[in-house]
Amino acid sequence: MLDNTHRIIAGVVLLTVIGIAYGGTFLLRVARGRAPANDLQKSFFRAGHAHAGVLVILGLLVMVLVQSNDVGEPWATLSTGVLIAAIFVPAGFFLSVASRDPQQPNGLVALIWIGLAVLAVGLLAGGIGLIAAGVG
Question: Which pTM value belongs to this model?
Answer without folding.
Answer: 0.91
